[in-house]
Amino acid sequence: MNLLVGRGAREFADALGVSRVAVVGSPLPTGNDTVGAITRDDSGLIVVASSTGGCTGRPAGRIGDTPLPGAGLWCNENIGVAATGIGEAITLKMSCVRIVDVRTRGREGAGVAGVSGVTGVDSLQAALEWGVGQFDPSIEVGFIGLESEGSGFGFANTGMPWATKS
After folding, report:
1. Domain range spanning residue 61?
2. Is residue 144 classed exposed, middle or buried when 0-12, 13-18 and 19+ CB atoms within 10 A define those classes?
3. Which pLDDT tens digit goes with each residue over 36-49?
4. CATH number at residue 42
5. 161 in a domain, yes or no?
6. Cα 58 from Cα 115, distance rounded (Å)
7. If you write DSSP's letter for every residue of 76-130 in order, what string do you get?
């Protein structure tokens, strides 16, 4: 797997015949163009996928949280989480892996690794709320999550839509 940005990405796109078009963005920083999906099969196997429209007002070649495991998406054998919002802030906090850790530790009744005084939480919804609570309310952020058993949840400090299907 390769992650291409800047000149390397442009050369690759040119080799494939992808047309060049001018990109006009907004100067206002917003990051609610991410589409995340989490699913599980009949055995409980969790898979997380995410795609982003990017954040406006960011420099060319910028990589946000979406493609970064631990930041924009994360799953283990029991829980999957995907993020949306201002990727720089999400990346600095490695939000998705931390939310999974908070929930996993809650299942085990243990404290959260590397976070003094924080214990795990007793539900996925509480873990997502904890994740959003790690940010100043002025920073747009939201998370969706699904466990190997039970329903999925979404929580954000914006009007982020989310849905679940059993």
Report:
1. 28-156
2. buried
3. 889 999 888 999 99
4. 3.60.20.30
5. no
6. 31
7. -SSEEEEEEE-HHHHHHHTHHHHHHHHHHHHHHT-BPTT-TT-B--SSHHHHHHH
Question: Would 93 be classed as within a structural domain?
Answer: yes
Single pTM value for the model: 0.76
| Alpha-carbon span 98 to 72, nearest angstrom | 11
Q: Does 34 qualify as catalytic in the annotation?
A: yes
94 sits in the region (left: phi over 0; alpha: psi -120 to 50; else beta) called left
Residue 6, domain member (yes or no): no
Q: Do residues 36 and 49 touch, judged by C-beta distance below 8 A?
A: yes
Cβ partners under 8 Å of residue 160, min gap 6:
32, 84, 142, 154
Q: What is the pLDDT of residues 78-104, one digit of tens each?
A: 999 999 888 889 999 999 999 999 998
Residue 131 lies in a domain: yes
Catalytic residue among 30, 34, 39, 52: 34
Q: What angle do CA 57, 81, 40 make, to 5 degrees?
A: 130
Strand, helix or coil for residue 10: helix
How many structural domains comprise the chain?
Answer: 1
142, 69 Cβ separation under 8 angstroms: no
